[in-house]
Amino acid sequence: MDLKRFDLVLMRHGSTLWNEQKRYLGHTDLSLSSKGHEELISARNKLKEMDFDRIYCSDLTRCRESLNAVRPDLSTEAVYDSRLREMDFGEWEGHTYDQLKNVPLYRQWLDEPKCVTPPQGESWEAFEHRTTEFLEFMLRIAEDEQAVDSPLTSSVLLVAHGGVIRQIVHWLHRDIAFWDIKVEPGNLLVLQMIRGEDDWTGGDLHII
After folding, report:
1. Would you please indicate which residues are annotated as catalytic (active-site) residues?
2. Pairing state between β 4-12 and 188-195
3. 192 and 7 in contact (C-beta within 8 Å)?
4. 80 three-class SS
5. Other CB atoms closer than 10 Å to residue 80's CB: what's the count?
6. Alpha helix positions (H), the chain
């Protein structure tokens, strides 16, 4: 078949208590707070009439609960993947900026996060690698399905963390810097994916 495209709907999970307290939260597995559930009401209303061909979700509790809050009917269809986890902040998990601001290594990490790794945490290279690996996996499936007998367009829902969503958008839109991508808890971004002659690229990007 000819040129294909699909809409990738990216949703950030609702807040946890640590998010509210501005503590670093990566692989620590926390549930949504009351505020987190409230943040998802708008997303639930926007997603309730949408159809999805595939659903992907981080395997951490806050993402699982977020998916269940907005579309409980999709919970059993979702693929829960650890590659969609937030970056692991190691020994800095659960700490705030004020608690770490006088730590020299932390100051270096703030200045050069791609060159410095949190103690017992995850390097930027490892984070990029697993996120890219997942993206390539997702796009291969999209291409294989559309090559067989699928519509020219489809929709994919992906529920993940702020850092993962930023990395996905940046990887597909190199002109958009990682830190320039704003995604608040419960936000929905829609990225149009287009299959060209050589590869998939990111098209129109907007918040709904």
Report:
1. 13, 161
2. antiparallel
3. yes
4. strand
5. 16
6. 17-20, 34-39, 41-47, 61-70, 97-100, 104-111, 124-149, 162-172
Cα–Cα distance measured from residue 113 to residue 19, given in angstroms and rounded to the nearest whole number:
20
Do residues 124 and 117 make contact, with C-beta atoms less than 8 angstroms apart?
yes
Structure token pair of residue 28: 């620590």
Instruction: Tell me which long-range contacts 35-38 makes (C-beta under 8 A, separation of at least 24).
Output: 36/62, 36/65, 36/66, 36/185, 36/186, 37/69, 38/14
Nearest to residue 140, comparing CAs of 73, 54, 23? 54
Q: How sure is the predictor about 154, in pLDDT bands with cuts at 50, 70 and 90?
A: confident
Residue (of 66, 46, 50) closest to 7 by Cα position: 50
What does the pLDDT look like over 124-152, one tens digit per residue? 999 999 999 999 999 888 877 665 555 55
User: Which residues have a Cβ under 8 Å from the Cβ of 151 and sit 6 or more positions away?
Assistant: none
How many whole angstroms separate alpha carbon 9 and alpha carbon 78? 14
Q: Distance between the two ends of the chain, CA-based, in angstroms? A: 30
Categorize the per-residue pLDDT at 1 as very low, low, confident or very high, splitting at 50, 70 and 90: very low
The three-class DSSP label of residue 177 is coil
Structure confidence by residue, pLDDT tens digits, 155-186: 999 999 999 999 999 988 888 888 888 899 99
